[in-house]
Design goal:
Blueprint lengths: L1 H8 L7 H4 L3 E5 L5 H16 L22 E3 L6 E5 L11 H17 L7 E6 L29 E6 H8 L9 H12 L1 H10 L4
Parallel strand pairs: 1-3
Antiparallel strand pairs: 1-2, 3-5, 4-5
Helix pairs in contact: 3-4
């Protein structure tokens, strides 16, 4: 996925991304409703927790392609983390970042809590119009380059295992708490135009 390579890793936004790249599972969903998305997330949560085996189907060449008709998966034998990439053309309400946030509340309740994964799984959201101040400004205001630290070419739900998050936290990485602020400062130094152009380039992968 070009976004992961050129922005997350290339711009050094996450120092823990390169080591787990080979164990990253990417699920491309063509779900047309929130209920269908929840089923996809539920399945991926089970796979990530090892309570369901990884299917052999899927293709590694479909990420970012919007002309396929079936949900597709980049299969990883033993994934450590999962990106569920959603398609706002089949579920148009997801063009609004705040709708993805609202959907995440259902993911928490109807998937993570339902299956007693609350202490085992975390979810992180990325979106083309994500903002750190979710409800403080319009979805279409693009005046803070820092928001590009949480922007992705497509609406995305990132599932992480709590054990891996804690491993990163206790890894001894220098000033981990200051990483978000440093990332925001870097994006602001790059400027909105460059950040926007970089993200747009990631849609054609």
């Amino acid at each position: 996925m070009k976004w992961m390579d050129s922005i997350v890793i290339g711009e050094k936004l996450c120092p823990f991304a390169p080591p787990v790249k080979s164990k990253l599972r990417i699920k491309v969903s063509n779900a047309k409703s929130y209920d269908e998305i929840l089923r996809d997330v539920e399945n991926e949560a089970h796979v990530l927790m090892g309570t369901k085996s990884v299917t052999s189907g899927g293709s590694s060449s479909l990420i970012g392609k919007k002309d396929h008709t079936e949900s597709s998966t980049v299969p990883i034998a033993t994934p450590e983390t999962t990106l569920i990439v959603l398609d706002e053309t089949t579920c148009p309400s997801l063009t609004d970042f705040r709708e993805l946030v609202r959907l995440s509340w259902r993911v928490q309740e109807e998937v993570i809590n339902k299956h007693s994964y609350a202490s085992l799984l975390q979810q992180v959201l990325f979106h083309p119009l994500a903002t750190h101040d979710t409800y403080g400004k319009s979805n279409h205001v693009d005046d803070d380059a820092a928001d590009y630290t949480i922007r992705s070419p497509f609406p995305t739900i990132h599932l992480l295992r709590e054990i891996d998050v804690m491993k990163a936290v206790t890894s001894g990485y220098k000033d981990l708490e200051g990483l978000p602020s440093r990332n925001k400062a870097k994006m602001r130094m790059d400027g909105v135009s460059l950040c926007r152009r970089r993200l747009e380039d990631c849609k054609d992968v």
